[in-house]
């Protein structure tokens, strides 16, 4: 019997941290595309074509800010919230959010998840990893403060 639950089982399928990061990025773009193409995300209550939704979701996750349609005129509050959430996901980083969710769900990180997160954050030790994730989530500076 495998221990660790569904998160450990999912992470066990990946052989390299780059696979986790790429899959997380693709999943964020896919979810964003589906949400942005729904009628709820359009002021005219008509579905947005999928290429426009895909471009907008990818741009939001990449934090570039490029859009095909005017966000203020074409998107109601739901669409704007989806875009803002995608920007947060892209800005915080896929692996940082995955680490936070893993910690919230299981209370601890397994070795494989810790190695993935260390590779993403480029931290040297587990203590560095915990400090970096905490600082990123709390929007603090991770550099030492000089007087």
From TrEMBL:
It comes from the Bacteria. InterPro entries: Cat_transpt. Keywords: Cell membrane, Ion transport, Membrane, Transmembrane, Transmembrane helix, Transport. Coiled coil: none annotated. The keyword Cell division does not apply. Its main location: membrane. It holds the Pfam family TrkH. It is a multi-pass membrane protein. It is found in: Cell membrane. The chain crosses the membrane at residues 20-38, 50-69, 81-105. The keyword Transmembrane applies. This is Potassium transporter TrkG.
